[in-house]
Amino acid sequence: MIRMDMTDVLVKIKRDPSAADLPLPSHGTVHASGVDLRSNEEGVLQPGEVRAFGTGLSVEIPPGYEFQVRSRSGLALKNRVMVLNSPGTVDADYRGEVRVILYNAGAQPFQVRRGDRIAQMVLCPVLRPVFVEVDSLSGTERDSGGFGSTGVR
Description:
By secondary structure, the chain is mainly β. It has 1 helix and 11 strands; from the N terminus they run ββββββαβββββ. A 4-stranded antiparallel β-sheet has the order 2-11-6-8, with no helix packed on it. Strands 4-9-7 form a 3-stranded antiparallel β-sheet. Strands 1-5 form a two-stranded antiparallel sheet. The longest helix has 7 residues, at 73-79. The chain starts with 11 loop residues before the first strand and ends in a 28-residue tail after the last strand.
């Protein structure tokens, strides 16, 4: 029996037979927002290299939600390995394998072993905008200032 509370959302997950021995994604702590994704593949990520690693998992996300695939802070800080398109989006209508695009920004090769936790995945609600074309927008103090217009201090 699955125990759920008011903040839980049921997500169906399918494990490829090649990932049958790997743990399903899970929260590392009680209040963790993300679940760890493990690599279903082995490989060496050379400095400056970008490569997609499989997880052996497919998901069925309820309409109105998405998964965001994000870097793990420890990998980014200690090894300079990160999810390149962070956050990567897994849409509710996608049924293929969840793959993680990793980038090695470090100076050393990085070994990915099968079963390594390579990213985290966070379930997020999706709001769909309805666009209304207008002739003008309301003004603000900032107005069109951007790209560092407020300075660094």
